[in-house]
Write a sequence for this structure.
């Protein structure tokens, strides 16, 4: 970790009879542990929340999010001010779901420390729902669009042409949503079942990209996973069969996506040459 930052890590210890949850510092070779209640954690995060840097993260939302999560990480800068935090919870298959990450500064430092800690907790994988504007960010930390942790390639990756365009232009959210390359990418993320939204109007994989965006189906983000332990294909027969079925269903979509994306690139180049 960078020397100018410090991090506090809390894990949910118990829940009171009235639903009051308590957190204690994660043991790290120290016998002494600090115990905090929800209101104390909110007090520590309040200076950060007041700056309104994370979309939709007001104090009321964070109060509810704290209770439904079991891991809390708070990053402090060299002035001992909170500058980032993570809320996460344990899931099935020895996994962790990263529910909230908010950073004024040091976001990459905190995420890196979070993943390091998970390595010590014997976690199989960590998942999250990435909003459209950060789909190019999380792959830097090993997050992929995949449904399992077999030692196989992910279902779909962001094409280099789109990734380079994002790096070079740093588009606004509106510019990103209007880009035909990006629209093609999220259309196939949806077709492959990576839309995080569970709203009834967003579940149909046949939705056109315009319908998908008009209904706000991208508002909950897109599922990503970082496998901390890859599973060899020499596993129980039912798991191997499940992987084979999933792969068979997605293989035509992967080929279709590559064809569509190539056509989109060609069309964009044609427009530039005519201009």
């Amino acid at each position: 970790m960078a020397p100018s930052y410090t991090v506090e890590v809390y894990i949910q210890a118990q829940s009171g009879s009235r639903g009051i949850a308590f957190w204690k510092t994660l043991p790290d070779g120290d016998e002494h542990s600090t115990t905090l209640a929800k209101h104390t954690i909110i007090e520590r995060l309040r200076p950060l929340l007041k700056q309104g840097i994370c979309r939709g993260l007001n104090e009321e939302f964070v109060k509810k999010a704290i209770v439904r999560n079991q891991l809390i990480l708070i990053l402090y800068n060299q002035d001992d001010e909170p500058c980032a935090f993570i809320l996460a919870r344990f899931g099935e298959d020895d996994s962790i779901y990263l529910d909230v990450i908010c950073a004024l500064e040091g976001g990459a430092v905190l995420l890196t420390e979070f993943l390091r800690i998970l390595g010590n907790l014997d976690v199989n994988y960590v998942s999250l729902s990435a909003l459209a504007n950060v789909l190019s960010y999380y792959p830097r930390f090993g997050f992929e669009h995949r449904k399992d942790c077999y030692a196989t390639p992910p279902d779909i990756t962001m094409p280099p042409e789109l990734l380079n365009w994002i790096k070079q232009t740093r588009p606004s959210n509106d510019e990103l949503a209007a880009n035909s390359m990006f629209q093609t990418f999220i259309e196939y993320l949806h077709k492959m079942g990576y839309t995080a939204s569970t709203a009834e109007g967003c579940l149909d994989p046949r939705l056109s990209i315009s319908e998908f965006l008009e209904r706000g189906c991208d508002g909950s983000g897109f599922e990503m996973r970082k496998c901390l332990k890859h599973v060899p294909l020499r596993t129980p027969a039912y798991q191997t069969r499940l992987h084979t079925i999933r792969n068979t269903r997605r293989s035509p979509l992967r080929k279709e996506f590559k064809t569509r994306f190539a056509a989109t690139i060609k069309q964009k180049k044609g427009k530039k040459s005519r201009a």
In short: Strands lie at 6-15, 21-25, 35-37, 71-76, 82-91, 95-103, 125-130, 222-227.
